[in-house]
Amino acid sequence: MAPLYFPLGLGIMLVVFGVIQILRSDIKKSIESLKMIKDMGEGDKKVNGMIGYTCVAGIVYALIFEHAGFVISTYFFMTAMLTLTNKKKHGQNALVAVLFSVGIYLIFTRALGIPLPKMPFVGF
């Protein structure tokens, strides 16, 4: 239970501080900035789309991490992020994602002795 207390306490404190920041903020300026979103240029819309895509990919990564294991979930996350920035080179993106996820897995588990979630049905 000991490793539970620090992240839980940190999460609660961050939520409380976030609520305090919202209450202290100028609501009128917040509403004005939300209205400005409608008048965004094409470049701003593209950047906001990329940010949203990254957030969704991060959430999916967190949800499948324990079930699919480190290598598989990291491969899909890296492929998604590389495809976002390097759209036309799918083979290169896949190769980099495989090398990164397997390489980091081996470094952490073999060299550093830090256990990471294993792939299902595979003993490596």
UniProtKB/TrEMBL annotation:
Protein name: DUF1468 domain-containing protein
Every DUF1468 domain range: 1-117
One Pfam family named in its UniProt record: TctB
Keywords: Membrane, Transmembrane, Transmembrane helix
Transmembrane segments: 6-27, 47-64, 93-114
Highest taxon of source: Eukaryota
Keyword Metal-binding included in the entry's annotation: no
Annotated source species: Aduncisulcus paluster
